[in-house]
Amino acid sequence: MPIDFKNLDFSLLAQDSDVSSFRCSEYFDLEDFIKSNAKRYQEDRIAITYLVHYENHLIGFFSLAMGCITAASVKDMNRNVHYDEKKYPALLLARKATHEDYRRMGIGSHMLKYVFATVFRLCPFVGCRFIKVNAIKNDGTLNFYKTYGGFREITESADTVEMVVDLNEVDVPDRSF
Ligand SMILES: CC(C)(COP(=O)(O)OP(=O)(O)OC[C@H]1O[C@@H](n2cnc3c(N)ncnc32)[C@H](O)[C@@H]1OP(=O)(O)O)[C@@H](O)C(=O)NCCC(=O)NCCS
After folding, report:
1. What is the full DSSP assignment across 25-70?
2. Residue 95 alpha carbon, nearest atom of ligand 1
3. Complete domains list, the chain, with CATH
4. 108: CA distance to ligand 1 center in Å?
5. Nearest-angstrom CA–CA distance, 165 and 85
6. pLDDT at 75 (0 to 100)
7. Are 165 and 149 in contact (CB under 8 A)?
8. CA torsion sign, 52 to 132 to 23 to 49?
9. How far does residue 161's CA lie from ligand 1's centre (Å)?
10. pTM of the predicted model, to two decimals?
11. How far is the CA of 104 from the centre of ligand 1 (A)?
């Protein structure tokens, strides 16, 4: 079933949002987050969650928060970032998942476009040079962020890879959501 992207509906999580249908069984912590913790995180201003509906089905979500990256981790990445700072501001893409029945249909890349549109709306008001994600360490996810977001791998831990994209190296999106 091809998705008509014009009919994707992005909205902010609300206290009365019904998220019970969301499935991400192979990374259950993401399913558990949206069902058990996202509303509390939002209320406490730890992370703001965006829901993506298609034909009234919840097919994806992502969460955003303030973040930062160490200057050392990007020093070889872009010669234009040379300030006497130990850290640089980065929007943290804290969590993101597509419902398991809707993968490889372009939903994830559309969510990423929305994240870019959001950060570029924020940039005139708050310093923010990078987007950062602690990506789950699997080839599909890493490939997704590299190909569709221009993210680069910075550091690696047991289960995740810290990836960043420099906002001065990407085009400002023309599509507004
Ligand atoms: C990563 C994730 C969000 C991608 O969502 P999606 O809706 O499937 O993404 P898209 O359909 O827009 O995929 C775009 C492209 O990314 C790449 N990609 C996505 N998933 C992939 C996979 N499992 N293996 C290889 N490449 C993959 C492909 O190039 C794909 O294009 P194609 O289908 O034309 O080949 C989704 O797989 C997911 O929720 N995974 C589990 C949770 C997770 O890893 N979340 C990220 C947390 S950091």
Report:
1. GGGHHHHHIIIIIHHHHHHTTS-EEEEEEETTEEEEEEEEEEEEEE
2. 47
3. 5-169 (3.40.630.30)
4. 6
5. 18
6. 84
7. yes
8. negative
9. 15
10. 0.95
11. 6
